[in-house]
Amino acid sequence: MTADPITLELYRHRFASIADEMGVSLQRTAYSPNIKERLDFSCAVFDADGRMVAQAAHIPVHLGAMPDSVAAALSAVSTWQAGDLVILNDPFAGGTHLPDITMVSPVFLEGETPDFFVASRAHHADVGGMTPGSLPLSTELYQEGLIIPPLKLYEGGVLNEAVLRLILRNVRTPDERRGDLAAQRAAHLTGERRLRELAATHGREEVLAYAQHLQTYSERRTRAALRTWPAGRYTFEDVIEHVEDGRLHLLPIRVAVTIAGETITFDFTGTAPQMRGSLNAVLSITKSACAYVVRCLVGDDVPMNAGCFAPLHVHAPEGTLVNARPPAAVAGGNVETSQRIVDVVLGALAQALPDRIPAASQGTMNNVTIGGIAPDGTPFAYYETLAGGMGAAPTADGLTAVHTHMTNTRNTPVEALERAYPFRVVRYAIRRGSGGRGFYHGGDGLIREYELLTEATITLLTERRVRAPWGLQGGEDGAPGVNRLVHPDGREERLPPKCSRHVQAGSRLCIETPGGGGWGTPEDV
Question: What GO cellular-component annotations does this UniProt entry give (predicted)?
Fold first, then answer.
């Protein structure tokens, strides 16, 4: 079937709207504030071969890595039937880190083989492990929580009760997990229903044909965009802040980006070896970060699907921070190392496209987990990533107090937090002046201060506390972030970028997030 341009555009939005509606279903039926309020989830539609057809505008680090999860599910299951649903979170089998639980289910339009797959990935606020929130200061994967290989949670529409009991027995907040898992399945049922309705209206043959046409179109448009970029090899280096035995170590991430005609290659040779800590990233994350940068530069009018990935090649040496071997700890690689991969790729491309690349944004997700037993005797586990400053662009100031790059979540409302957890937010403000000066100024970070109403364990995975977000083209760096703990007796403690503490009721945790870098020489210089 030959593609008609108008029909192609219609199908682009039809498939994307299905992924969007899946997300709405997931949000409205979820239990945890992390999913319901922060929207820390992603949904997408795949063809019968596991190639992405469409995605919703959700979390970049989820969506770029989700094809590997679908591939893992397809490899693990030899026979599919209607009502099947595969669950997984193993980072070394298509996942990213253990709190991100992925589900994959088939969609049958006719016959006995799937015509599509729908998938969702949601960050669950606790999946067990050393500390509440499942983002511990771990040294191997087994300390981070329950590991789920690709297996069927539902078979033919029937729940595997034993698997569900096993999952819920290994988490601190089983009722919340049960609700969030059910919400993901509800999203899949929505996606399956809408795809069948689409085929019933327009015919199976046309729907399948345009799923392929969209991928071909996106690949053609991506290759055409790459041909306009200056050919050459561009290099850049930045660091990850690792704390071990009380000492700070700056671990390099290096990239060489080669633009050659209609292809682009990212080579991470020279990056630090995988480390004894949780900042290791699996290959799925590295590929996702590279794809995200290219996607931003190609333009919003190109549909995001498997075709966009075809001209991209990633070489990440095995056993390094950007392609760790099992059983490496990876909890922080998904949330922090992914941000630094974006930074180094943007830094390299700034040499090729100086009028298009922004200065560094905050470069961290400022991961905060707080957990323990509430005064009423029930366990709680809070997780949030905090916004910061966006790097200034060649044409505009950076935005203030927003999530950037590999995260795309909301700022959780104070009211939602205080209703769900035993703490108060005593300060929530913009961190004025933290953005770097420039012809265009970097965006400011924010300040969030919690007062704990019960004893709890807090764990921080943060970056850019030592090495500031860099400016470009003469712009100044943004301010590094600051982590502080004020004890009940008033004693103040400056916390390192990564730490875990058991604290008493009345303690206050204050996080000041980094500002973005400035772009261009300040006018008053």
Answer: cytosol
Domain presence at residue 329: no
Calpha distance 64→486 (Å, rounded): 39
Alpha-carbon gap, residue 397 to 68, rounded angstroms: 36
Distance between start and end Cα atoms, the chain: 61
- Three-state SS annotation for 176-241: HHHHHHHHHHHHHHHHHHHHHHHHHHHCHHHHHHHHHHHHHHHHHHHHHHHHCCCCEEEEEEEEEE
In a domain, 272, yes or no: no
Question: How is residue 296 written in tokens?
Answer: 């931003």
Instruction: Identify the residue whose tokens are 């029937």.
Output: 158
Task: Give the chain's radius of gyration (CA, Å).
Answer: 22
pLDDT at residue 130 is higher than 80: yes
Paired with 450 in beta bridges are 425, 509
Measured in whole angstroms, the distance separating CA 228 from the mean position of its chain's CA atoms is 29
* Residue 345 near residue 297 (C-beta atoms within 8 A): no
Task: Kindly report the pTM of this predicted structure.
Answer: 0.95
- Those residues whose C-beta lies under 8 Å from the C-beta of residue 327, and which sit 6 or more positions away, are 140, 141, 142
Burial class of 245 by CB neighbour count within 10 A (0 to 12, 13 to 18, 19+)? exposed
For residue 313, which amino acid is it? H
Residue length, the chain? Answer: 525
Q: What is the pLDDT of residues 440-490, one digit of tens each?
A: 999 999 999 999 999 999 999 999 999 999 999 999 999 999 999 999 999
User: Does a structural domain hold residue 413?
Assistant: yes
**What residues does 425 pair with on adjacent strands?**
450
154 inside domain: yes
In the Cβ-directed half-sphere of 431, how many Cα atoms lie within 13 Å? Answer: 31
Distance CA 239, CA 232 (A): 24
Cα 242 to Cα 248: distance, rounded to the nearest angstrom:
6
For the chain, the farthest-separated pair of C-alpha atoms sits apart, in whole angstroms, at 74
Give the structural domain span for 385: 358-525
Contact 22, 56 (CB under 8 A): yes
3-class SS at 266?
A: strand
Alpha-carbon gap, residue 276 to 328, rounded angstroms? 8
Domain boundary among 170, 186, 220: 220
- Give the pLDDT of residue 301: 85
Rounded CA gap, 472 and 394, in Å? Answer: 9
Number of domains in the chain: 2
Instruction: Please work out, in degrees rounded to the nearest 5, the angle formed at the alpha carbon of residue 213 by the alpha carbons of 200 and 284.
Output: 105
Whether the upstream peptide bond of residue 422 has omega within 30° of 0, thus cis, is: no
Q: How far apart are CA 507 and CA 423, in angstroms?
A: 10
